[in-house]
Design goal:
Elements (H helix, E strand, L loop, with lengths): L10 E3 L1 H4 L9 H10 L4 E4 H16 L5 H17 L2 E4 L3 H19 L3 H12 L4 E3 L3 H9 L3 E2 L3
Parallel strand pairs: 1-4, 2-3, 4-5
Helix pairs in contact: 3-4, 5-6, 5-7
Length: about 150
């Protein structure tokens, strides 16, 4: 199934959904193909960018990639920002954290969402984005409960 979204600007992509663009993973082929079909620049928060960079470093630490592959992955990430495939997006952190607190109180007891996942949904809401891409089922349920439309690959 493909998404009906015309451009990337309305989509919040959770970092875990973007990591397969930079590290070979089972979903890499699908996310690369989806991204190639989607025009525009995906908004990424500063902490989202930090999560992607950290995931690359963790993959090296765990022996999943060599130091050379990690350097290549960080370079590809930086290149995507420089070329406009990804757009560094600012969000008012205090507002996003306050939103995350409310979402945690309302939804975490029934959905079991993790703090980082809640914060990404809160950021999407603060940025007034319409669509949410994640491979995490609980996070997707939270996003849907908050009125964000799922992006299907």
């Amino acid at each position: 199934m493909t998404t009906t979204v015309a451009t990337a600007e309305d989509i919040y992509a959770d970092p875990s959904a973007l990591i397969p663009l930079y590290l070979h993973q089972p979903r890499s082929r699908a996310i690369v193909a989806w991204r190639a079909r989607l025009p525009g620049s995906l908004p990424v928060t500063h902490h989202g960018r930090a999560e992607i960079a950290n995931a690359i470093g963790l993959a090296q630490f765990r022996g999943e990639v060599s130091s050379e592959k990690a350097i290549e992955a960080w370079g590809a990430l930086d290149h995507d920002f420089a070329e406009g495939n990804l757009q560094q997006t600012s969000v008012m952190l205090r507002a996003a954290l306050n939103q995350a607190i409310e979402l945690s109180r309302t939804h975490s007891p029934t959905l079991g969402t993790r703090a980082s996942d809640v914060l990404h949904v809160a950021c999407a809401m603060e940025l007034k984005l319409k669509h949410f891409l994640t491979f995490d089922e609980r996070q997707q349920k939270l996003a849907a409960a908050c009125g964000l439309k799922p992006v299907k690959l």
